[in-house]
Amino acid sequence: MDLNLNRADYLQVGVTTQKTMKLLPASKHRATQKVVIGDQDGVVMCFGVKKGEAVAVFKTLPGQKIARLELGGVLNTPQEKIFIAAGSEIRGFTKRGKQFLSFETNLTESIKAMHISGSDLFLSASYIYNHYCDCKDQHYYLSGDKINDIICLPVERLPRITPVLACQDRVLRVLQGSDLTYEVEVPGPPTVLALHNGNGGDSGEDLVFGTSDGKLGLIQITTSNPVHKWEIRNEKKRGGILCIDSFDIMGDGVKDLLVGRDDGMVEVYSFDSANEPVLRFDQTLSESITSIQGGCIGKDGYDEIVVSTYSGWVTGLTTEPAHKESGPGEELKINQEMQNKIYSLRSELEHLQYKVLQEREKYQQYSQSSKAKSAVPSFSVNDKFILNKDDASYSLILEVQTAIDNVLIQSDVPIDLLDMDKNSAVVSFSSCDSESNDNFLLATYRCQANTTRLELKIRSIEGQYGTLQAYVTPRIQPKTCQVRQYQIKPLSLHQRTHFIDHGRPMNTLTLTGQFSFAEVHSWVFFCLPEVPEKPPAGECVTFYFQNTFLDTQLESTYRKGEGVFKSDNISTISILKDVLSKEATKRKINLNIAYEINEVSVKHTLKLIHPKLEYQLLLAKKVQLIDALKELQVHEGNTNFLIPEYRCILEEADHLQEEYKKQPAHLERLYGMITDLFIDKFKFKGTNVKTKVPLLLEILDSYDQNALIAFFDAA
Amino acid sequence: MLLPVFTLKLRHKISPRMVAVGRYDGTHPCLAAATQADKIFIHNPHTRSQHFSASRVIQSPLESDVSLLNINQAVSCLTAGVLNPQLGCDTLLVGTQTNLLAYDVYNNSDLFYREVADGANAIVLGTLGDISSPLAVIGGNCALQGFDHEGNDLFWTVTGDNVHSLALCDFDSDGKKELLVGSEDFDIRVFKEDEIVAEMTETEVITSLCPMYGSRFGYALSNGTVGVYDKTTRYWRIKSKNHAMGIHAFDLNSDGVPELITGWSNGKVDARSDRTGEVIFKDNFSSAIAGVVEGDYWMDGHVQLICCSVDGEIRGYLPGTAEVQGNLMDTSVEQDLIRELSQKKQNLLLELRNYEENTKAESSSPLSEADGHRGIIPANTKLHTTLSVNLGSETQAPHTELCISTSNDTIIRAVLIFAEGIFIGESHVVHPSVHNLSNSICIPVTPPKDVPVDLHLKAFVGYRSSTQFHVFELTRQLPRFSMYALTSPDSATEPLSYVNFVIAERVQRVVIWLSQNFLLPEDSNIQNAPFRVCFTSLRNGGQLYIKVKPSGEITVNTDDIDLAGDIIQSLASFFAIEDLQVEADFPAYFEELRKVLVKVDEYHSVHQKLSADMADNSNLIRSLLVRAEDARLMRDMKTMKSRYMELYDLNKDLLNGYKIRCNNHTELLGNLKAVNQAIQRAGHLRVGKPKNQVITACRDAIRSNNINTLFRIMRVGTASS
Q1: Strand extents, DSSP E, B63-108
Q2: pLDDT in tens, A234-256
Q3: Per the structure, how many domains does chain A have?
Q4: Which ipTM was obtained for this model?
C-alpha cells in the first residue's frame, strides 16, 4: 500500500529544541486535536487549526529556553496536562493555559531531558539523573557520560519503576532506584528513546532508540538483561534521529513508527508479519525535525503526521488529498482561504517593514554618537561535529534559524574538506600562508538562497591536532557572524567502544609521575574523542577505543599517578607518547614514560590492513577496466567472448563505480598509515628510517603482503 | 508537476555536449550523439534502419534501432541541420581536431570533408548576416571559419583566443543573425559577419551559448555560472557548484517565452525564467547530463524537450498546457509563497528584536570586557579602506595593496574578499593568527589581467575574545590599471615600441581618465599639457610612458602590445570615441612574429614531407606483407621471419614518424595561434572601422603570403602606403 502525504504548513514559532511539541488528546471522538509547542524564547503556545488557519488557544509570555515539553496527568486518564522544562524549573499548564505548577528543582544545571508518568517526574541535567514523586526527591544517579534522553517503562503495566537513560557513550543505562541495574550497548550515541507502540509493546518492556548517527533499534528491557529485537542501520547515510513516535498512519490497524531526523527526513516504518520494520514513506523537509507526532489536527477524518522543525515551523503531512484532486467548487474555496492567508501575511509584513525601517534609522543615528555601543544580534546555531564510523571522516553540520549567507571554515591543522552532494553551496578555497598565520585551510561556502542547513565532510589525519573554526554569517540585518570551534584531537579517528579483543598482541605505554586523577583525565580528554569532560567517579577508570579506519584498538586505564595505555597499533602509542609528554611539559609535571613494544603487533596490524588494502587495490583495478570493457562490449555486441571475471566486472560496473566514488583517497590514507607504522616502529628502536620511505612506497605500489612484512622485518 | 512523456535507456554512453537531433531522411527526427571509441550513434526509433546499410554505418550490436558511425578521430563537436536547402534533408556535421565532415546520413555520402588546421572546438549551423546560403561555422584556435554545403570557405576571421562556444542570434535586432563567440580569454564577442560589434567580458571560459529570442541569449561558464544577456546587459546569472553541461532555450510552460533549460554535471535539469532566473521546473537524472536538445521525436506534431545523460538515458518533455502554467513544480505555489512570506516576517521580527536588544545594551553601563565577548562594539566604529601600490620587498613581489582598518581599538578578526577573476576561487580569506590580531590588515592583491574588478569585502570586526563579530560589508573597485606604479620618468629606459594617435579631448579630461584608471599617489598633481607620466608594471617591471601634447596627440610607449591595446580601448570607451586610427610600432614583437611566420612555413613543408613519407611507407608495408605471406606459403620460414622483422622495424619507424607528425602539428597549431593573436592584437590597437580594416587587410596579406605588407598594415593601419 502506498502512502501519499501532502504537506501543509501551519505556523511558525521561535527556534525549537528536541521533543518540544505534542498533540493534546482529542476531547470528543474524531474531533481535531490541538498542538502545543514550546520554543527557545520560552513561549508555550497551544493552537488548533480551523480551515487551514492556526487559531491560538493560549500563548504564554517569553521566559527561559524550553528544553522539553511533555504531557501528563493521572494514570489511565487522558494525558492532557502540559509540563515544560525550562532552566532548572518545571512548569505545568492545563490545556486551557492556566499554570497550576511551578516547581523549582534543586538541580544546579539546566534540565536537558524529562519524562512524566503519573505523579512521577524523571529529570536529567547533563550528567545527573533525578527522580521526583509529587515533587519530592526520590532517587539520584550520576552518569558516566552525558545523558541525552530519559524514559521510564510504563508503570501501569509493569510492577516496578524502571527508568532508562540514553547516554552519549553509546549505552542505555537501566536503573532501579538510585542504582544501576545494567548497561546496554547500542550501535551509536543514543539521542532519543520511545516506548514501542507508545505503550512498551506486548511485554511493556520494548523500547525504541534512535542514535545520532542515524540508527534505529528495538530492545526489550527485562529485569535482568536486554534482548535486542531488531536494528536498522543507516545505509542511506541519513541524518541523526531526533524524535520517534508510534501512530497508525497507514490505517491498517498496526501502529507505525514515525521518525524525524536532523537532516529534515521524515520516515514512516510499518511492521510486516514478522514484526520487522519496513520503510513505507519518506519525505525531506529542509531543516532538522525536532518533534514528531501522529494525530489529526487539520481536518476531521484525515490523519496526519505533525512535525516541528528547528526554525519553529509546525508542519503537517496529511492524508487529506491536495486540493487539485478535489471537486471544482471546493478548490475555489481552498484557494480563497489561501488568498486570505497570503493577504493577511502581506499586510502584516508591510506593517513590520515600516517599523523596521524606523528602527533602522534610529540605529543609524545611534552610530553617529561616540558614546553609543552597538550590540551584535544573537542568533542560535545548531551544530554537530561527529565522527562517521563507515568512512572514518567527520561531519560538521551547521543549522541556523534563518538563511545562511556564507560560512568561513578555518583550520590550523591540515585537513581535507570533502565535497558533499547534499549541499549546494559554492565552495572556494583560499590560499593560506601557513607560517605566519597558522592557517592550513581557509575555505568559504557561499550558500544559495534559503539554505538554512549546511553539511560538510572533513577528513583528519591522526597525530595532527588543533582547532577547526567555523564563522557563520546569516542573512539578517545588522550583519553579524558567530564563530564556532571544534577540536580535532590527536587520535581523532578513535571511537569509544565497550569491548575489546584481549587476545591481540599489545604495545604498552606506561606513565608514572606526580599527577592527579583529574590531570591525567584531562590529558585523555585532550587526546581522544568521546571522553566525558568531567572526570568520572571512582579512583581508577578504563576506557576502550577502536580505530574506525583500521579497527585497531586502544585500552586506557589510569588513576592518580599512573596511566597505562595499550594498543595493538604502534602508531597510536607513538602519537600518545608525543602528545602526553608535550602536555606534561606544558604543565611542568615530571613524567616517567616507559614503553614496551611487541614486535608481533606490527605484523598483526599489517594483517589487519591487508584485506582492506587488497580490496581497495582490486577495486581500483576493476574500475580502471570498466570503460575499456564497455567499449569492447559496444564493439562486439555481446560479452560471451570475455572471461567470466571480466563479465562479472561489467555486470557489477555501476556498483563498483559507486563504491569507488564513496571512498575517495582511501588508498592514499592506507598508504599513509602504513608509512606511519613503519616510521613509528623504528622510532621506538631509536632509528630514523625516513630515507627508506621511498623504498616502502615502491613495495606498496606492487603490493604483496609477504613482501611488505619482510620489508618491515628486514629494514 | 511535469512528467517526461518518454524515457529511453540506450546502452551507449554519450559524450558531453555532443548531441544533435536531425531529420536525416527529411521526415523522421533522429538523435545523433558522439559515444565512446570515436564513434557516433544515431538513434532512429521510427523505422528499422534498413537503409543504413553502407560502409560507414554499421548496425549497433546492442540495440536494433541504433546505428553506429565510425569517425576514427576524437569527435570535438557535432551538430545537425539544413546545410544544403536543395537536398531536402538534414546534414550531420562532425568536427574533430583536424577535420570537418559534412555527412548525408540518408544517402550515405559525404557532402565534403575538409581539413581545418585550427581544429573545430565548436560548431553552429545557420545563416549568418547577409551570406545567403546556410553556413557551418566552426571555431578553433583563435579562428572562425564558415563553410557552405560544397565546402567552400565563405567566412573567415580571427578572435582573441581559442573558441569554446558559438551561437547565432539576432543581436542588434536587424533581422539578420550575428555570430556570438565565447572564448578561452573569458570574452563573449559578437561578430556582424567579420566585424566585431560588441565584447562582453565574463569571469571564466564560456562553455556554452544559446540564442533565446530576439536579442536575448543564454550563456554558461566553466565555473558553474549560467545566465542570460540581452544585448550587452546581463539580466541575471546564478552560480552553482556543479557545471552546466548544456543549455537550451525552450518554452516549457507555454507562456510564449522560452525558458533557459540547463543540464548540470550532477544530473539535474532545470528550467529558469529568462527574466528573473527563477526556477520553474526541475528534474533529476542519475548521471551527468550530456546535452539538451529539442525535436518532434514522437512525430505527433509537438516539439519535445529532449535531455540526454552521459549514461544514455534520454527523457522527453512536452511543454505544460496553459492551465498548469506556473505549476510545473510539485509543491503548490501558494504554499511556497506563504512559506516565503513567513520567513520574511520572521526575519523582520528578528531584526526588530536585534534593534531592541541594541537599545537595551545602550542603556547599560559603559563598555566592559564581557561586552567584548558578546560582540558589543562602539557604535561609531568605522571601517577605512585604502588602495595603494606596493613596490614589494626582497621577500614579496610587487603588488597592489588593500589596507583595511577600523577607527578605534576594535580588531579585525578576518576579511573575506569576494571578487571574480583575480583569485583562484571566487574568494580570498585573510585570517590572522590570534597573536597577530590588530585593527588593520593589509591584503596584497595581484589581478592577473588589466580589467576593473569589484572587490566585495566582508570584515569581521569585534574584540580579541569575541565569539560574535560584526560583519562590515563594503565594495571597492580596483581600477583597470592598478598593477602599474607611477615612477619618475627616466628617458634612458623608455621603450622603443609605441602607439601614437590624436584625440579631440581637453587635457584635463585625460587627467581624469588617468586618475580613474590608475592608482596614483594622493599628492601627485599633473600639470597642464604637454605632460609625460611614467609607470612601471608590477608584474614584469616593464615601463609605460604616456605623453600628451596640447594638440591632443597622445603617445604611449610600451613593449607590451596588449597593454597598449587595453589603454586605447579604455580611452576610447571613456571618451566614447567611435573610430580611432592609430600608428603603432612594436619592433621586438614584430620581429618575433616574423620568426613565427617563417616557422609556420617550415612546419607546413615538414608536414607535407612527412605525409609523403607516410604514403611511401604504406606502399612498402603492402609489398613487405605480400612477400612475407608468400614466403610463408612457400614454407620458407627464414625469409618470412626476416620479412616480418623488417615489417616490425618499419612499423616502429611509422610510429616514430607519427610522433614527429604529432609534435609538428602541435607546434604548427601553437604558431598559427600566435599569428591569429597577432592579427587580433593589431586590431585591438584600433577602434571602430579602422579596427575592422586592419583585421581584413592583415588576413588578405597572410593569404597572399605578403609578410611585408602585413607589418605595414600593423604599423599604419592600412595596406596602401
Answers
A1: 66-70, 75-81, 91-96, 99-104
A2: 888 888 999 999 998 888 888 89
A3: 4
A4: 0.80
